[in-house]
Every structure is written in C-alpha cells, then in structure tokens.
Amino acid sequence: MLGLKQIKKIAVKQQNKPVLITDDFSFGWTDYKVLVESNLVNLLKNEYLNTDTTRVIIMSENSWKLFILYSCLVTSKVAYSGIDYTMNDEKKIACIKQSGANTVFYSEDNKPSDVMLASLPNIKFINLDIIKEDTIDDDTDVFGLVKQLNHSDDVLSFSFTSGTTGLPKCIYRKSSFDKRRLGIFTNKYEITSDDIYLVTMPFYHVSVNGWAKLTLVNGGTVVFGDFSNANDLYYKITNYNVTSMLITPPVLQRLVPVLQKNNYQNTSVHFIMVGGKNFPTILKEQAIELFGPVINEYYGSSETGINTLADSQDMSKYPAASGQFMEGSKLIILDDKGNVLPSNSIGRIAIQSFQCADGYMGKKMAEITFDGERYVITSDYGYLNAEGYIFVTQRVLFDDNDIENNLFSLENRIRMIRNVEDLVIIQDENNYYTINVKISKESTSMMVKIIVDAINGVLASSQDSFNLNIVNNINYSLSGKVKYNEFLNSK
Question: Structural domain of residue 243, as residue ranges?
Fold first, then answer.
C-alpha cells in the first residue's frame, strides 16, 4: 500500500478523481490524503501505535477502513500483515505468535474470541472502527509524530502461507522489491492512471496488495468487489468500466457462467491476471473466449513472489504451461538428491529471484545454492520444456510422495468431461490417490455413471490405482488454495 508522501504527490495531479470505490464509502485522491493524515495523527497521538509497538496483525474483511489503516502503517514504518480471518483460533494464534506482533486490529465482524484473548494476554487488540470517516481539524505535523515514533525493525515486511495443509508459516523480508517489480509490470501491461482495478480477493493476501499497488502508484482507481458473489463482480465489471483485475481460478470459474448467461461483451478490460492455484486448461479457453486475448497467468508463491508469466498467446501455444521466467527470476528442477534435472524431467521446482523472501520466522526455509546463487525450494513439482515453459504437475503434501505422476494433467483431462464442475486429486502420505469430483446437480443417476466410466477411461493409462469420491463441494481458501486438510482429515 502507499505511504502518505507518495499519496500527497499523486493527489496533486489526480485531485478528486476516485481512488477507492466500495459499497459503503468511496473517496478521491485528495480525500485519501486527508483521511490518512487525520487517522494517523489519531493513532499516534492516542498511542494506538507507540514506541512499544513491534509489528501489527490485521483481522478484517476488505473495507475502506482497512485501506486507510494500511497506508497509516506504511507511513509509520511499522511492518504489518493481514491474516485469513476465516481460519480457526489455533491458526490465528499461531500467526500472531510467529510474527512477533504485539498489536492486532480487528473489524467488528472478526472480533478476537475469548480463547484468543486468553491465549494472547500481552497483545493489544484494537477495533478497526478507530479509523474514522470524519477528519480531525488538527494542524499537527504528522511526519513529526512519525519521527518521534522512530520505529525500527530489521524486518521490513512479513506475510503468511495459506495454511491449507497445516499451520501457516510466517515469511519475512528485510528489503523491498516493489520499485523494480512495479516498474516491470507498469511497462509490460501498460498500466496508467486511467486503470480501474477490481479487487476479487481479500486484502490480507500479499498478492492483492501488490497488484492493487500497481494501480495506485500509477494514479488509478481501486474497486472492491464481493468475491463470494459472481453477480456482484459482473455488475462491477460492467458498471464501473473495470480495466484490470487479479483473480483466482475458483472465483473465475464462478464468474464465467454469469458472464455467459448475460451475453457479456468485453468493452473495457485490457488486463486480467490469474494465479493462486492450478489454472485449468478448459477455464483458460472459456476466459479467453469471453474477454479476448487479455488473460494472463503467473506462477509463483508467497515465498518467491511472481516468477513466471504467460499471456493468452502462450496459453494457446501450451495450454497446460504457466509461462516462462519473468525478468529477474530463474527456475531449476531438482531431483531428490538436489541435482539439477534436464528439460522435460519432473522434479521439485526451485526459484531464484530478486523477490525471494529472506526466510520464515522461527523455521528454516528450504533452499539450495546453484551457480553461486540462492534458490528457494518450493513445495511444487513440475518440469521445464526445451523452450523454458514451466509445467507444474502437482503440489506434494508429504516428503515421501511419489512425484512422477502429472496430477494436474489428469485433472485437466477429467475436467473436459461434461458435467464435471470441479475436482481435486489428493495424494496422502502412503501414496494413495483419491479423486474428489464435484458433478453438476442437474446430472441424472445415469449421467453420473457415464461420468464415472469416462473418468475411469482417463485413468486407464495410469499404473497407479485411484479411488473416486463424488463430493458436494470442494472448498478453497479465500486466496484460492484447495483446503487439502479437509480431505486428508476426513480419511
């Protein structure tokens, strides 16, 4: 998010042009400056942020108050992160403890439970309603207050993994890559002050902050969408002339039929970035058909940033690939002994990038040195073809898992079967595979049997045995990750 100095500079040019549009409250660049100034003065003068503040955690859904708070924290130089407010108490407590934060802001709908309050007696909990719409007529020098705060921390920023396979891990960075990456993306995707960016994910996720900032540094407008409601997203896209968005495959999958039903014609969107999980090939085709050649995909992680990029032309060439290295990133594929594998060999993906995190709080990050450079080893497996395109094959959940199967390829083939709405293949610690399939509710019992036969036909070429499980739903985290634990714990 932007700090006050940058906001003031942009506001001189953009003035009352909208910077944030929400269902509850919207404001322009000049008011953005005033709101941050006023609320930061309040936070500092009343010592909600003080010399004892270490770091800050936020538990809140997307709101204009969250937007303002983020800018206040950036200006005060206090490291902060949102957390998934839908997590259970155990995970929330673990996040707060790992982070070293001693201050937690929360929204009215995400108050800390009694269990959290009892487990975290030394944490200061502050209601986000402390952020006010009514500005204070106060001529206090806000930068003077920030100077008095004199906050110092060797950690510049931190964030969390999704926690879909266990407790979230806290990732930290000691330096910023923003300026370099924002410059690359501004030029590559032609982002300008005319852009209107639709938010389709929660702001607690680090990627949302990054893509929103891409719009803001260029003087554009951010619109908050209800990512649980595809009809709301359709309304915002068409009524606000949205030009760009970051979206996860699960949200895009819900949006596509709504657009199709309304005979949507793209007249404004010039850039869509999709990421967060496996992007099904059939969904790529549907999205390109609806929006035109404006669909882009990235592969990366919270630990490594954005590392490969694919545009619509790449998708047409290699539908199952996730693009090629972006500027400043390199990928290698490793075998189980840490040796680099040749093209078209499946192994573990390792990434070298100026965006890589420095480590985890209290936990060692898997890494390797190759040609004198540090590579972070991911949990993903895949292969590089001879042209340098990355094909992600699966996410391995357990260290002893067999990694030779291209599970995402199997998923893509099964998705081609009519009335298969969603699926995920789960590999447990014993290399036992379960295919969890959601079938359209309109399917007759006979159609279900036909679908099962078709799936078995796809699996016939595999030497492994798969258990087929028909499910009512496949749940995802708000950042688009399959909630693997729900399947593993149900066994």
Answer: 178-292
